Description:
Blueprint: H1 6-12, H2 30-45, H3 52-57, H4 59-74, E1 77-83, H5 89-97, E2 115-118, E3 127-131, H6 140-152, E4 156-161, H7 167-178, E5 183-187, H8 195-208, E6 218-220, E7 228-233, E8 239-244, H9 251-313, H10 319-338, H11 345-362, H12 364-377, H13 383-412, H14 421-432, H15 435-454
Parallel strand pairs: 1-3, 1-4, 4-5, 5-6
Antiparallel strand pairs: 2-3, 7-8
Amino acid sequence: MAGDTLWQRLRGWLTSEHAGAIATPAPRNATTGSTRVADSLRSLLGDPTIPASVRSELATDFGRIEHMLDKLERGELHIAVFGRVSTGKSALGNALLGHEAFAVGVLHGTTTDAAHARLDEAQHDGLVLIDTPGINELDGEAREQLAFEVAEVSDLVIFVCDGDLTREELDALKTLAATQRPLLLALNKADRYGRDELSSLLEHLRLRASGLVRAEDVLAVAADPAAQRVIELDAHGRERAHEQARPPDVAALRERLLAIAAREGKTLSAINAGLYAGRLTDQVSARIAQTRQAVAANLIRHYCIAKGVAVALNPIPVADLLAAAGLDAAMVVQLSRVYGLPLTRAESGRLVAVISAQLAALMGAIWSMQLVASALKGVSAGLSVVVTAAAQGALGWYATVLIGRAAERYLIAGKSWGEAGAKRAVAEIVASLDRDSILREAREELLRRLKSHRA
Length: 455
């Protein structure tokens, strides 16, 4: 890639909006960066403002953060190995490790889960290799999802192919690149090609992976070379042929990994943890927002019922509307506590007055109807009183929904109407709600309560 290296671009993420709430100044050295990220992870894990229900919903994600914190403290760099079935992913892992750590087979489905093993030659650098299911395995969607989840908590990815990239492989490579993980492309089974053919294929792969993998990170390996036919002469001078196993040829890839670990290992691990924790912070914020909205919706409905019944049962025309305004102010005080921005009763009253003024300007005809219904309620008799009272109560209910939603928007924005002002905000709330369905629900609920009260 032109300009900054991928490692430099990734390091910059720690100070970008993508690092979420845990973003810290760019570290002057890897140790400082790792320490700061570790401190941020501990703060996220111990944040007392995160509700228990949210922690329970995101238990798996918080578990990953704990795993990442442990990894940072141990100074490990985790490397995921991806590729199609039969490209030799597991064999490559074993060759890098120097022993049989991963299952190797010729049938689909040999690798069905992630496995971990420490790189023997690099224990002091803390490299950990992660084998993954083949991206074209049977039941591929579930296993591919598992592989991408492993990539999300890995610091670097080796993508293994054994020839030109298929459409499936190129798509997977693009998906992995989008995770912002550094990528190496390993052409396995290099022993099958002649020198010129191998050189040409590597150049072709570098071209196809351009923008996804740096040219110097496209390497040839032979994890499990085919046996070599050897001709020997016996004691009588007769030729005898036999197959002689050849050792793996992964030296270039191993050296590349060790160089990256030595130069960038701690930084990569810190960046990955920072990115993941940033996404978790966003998820936590979203869940808290959803929880608050659910609580706010229940609170608004509670006050809708209280105001609707109070307006419907109060026999004194117009006076009921004044009493209802007090209920609205009390509701806004409660909403402000839900959103962690408490308002005094006076502040709440002023906010209700602002919203009501905008509603009156927008919906003067409705408020006129409400006043007429209030007057009619005092001179009606029999069931018509109940029906008329329910109608007026429904309008009071609807007004409370509008005031509650408008106040909620004001609080979510940090006690602000935004650049457009209160008029625009209230108008958008009115436009977003289905008035007829709200009034229908309100009338049905209030009629049920009023008939029960009369009985």
